[in-house]
Design a protein that fits this description.
Length: 85
């Protein structure tokens, strides 16, 4: 069983009223609604961070040796293709 912790938060009255209405609509307590909301927020944030890390890993430019190697490969490929046509 998960351990729970009590906390107090301050939010705008209009947001509180929306949360209260939604909790009633979903037939859950306000505490459960806030717990679900923060859980969703945390998961979303973790996914964003993971996506940033993936994008960072794929955004690296090739180093100088790779650029030279790629240039030679392109030249060779053009020559091979021209010779066959």
């Amino acid at each position: 069983m998960a351990t729970t912790v009590k906390t107090a938060i301050s939010i705008q009255k209009s947001l509180f009223e929306q949360a209260e209405s939604l909790a009633q609509e979903l037939n859950v307590s306000r505490s459960e609604l806030f717990g679900l909301a923060i859980e969703s927020f945390v998961k979303n944030r973790q996914n964003q961070m993971l996506l940033q890390e993936i994008n960072k890993a794929y955004s690296d430019e090739p180093d100088t040796n790779d650029k030279v190697r790629l240039s030679k490969m392109r030249k060779h490929h053009r020559k091979v293709v021209r010779d066959k046509w």
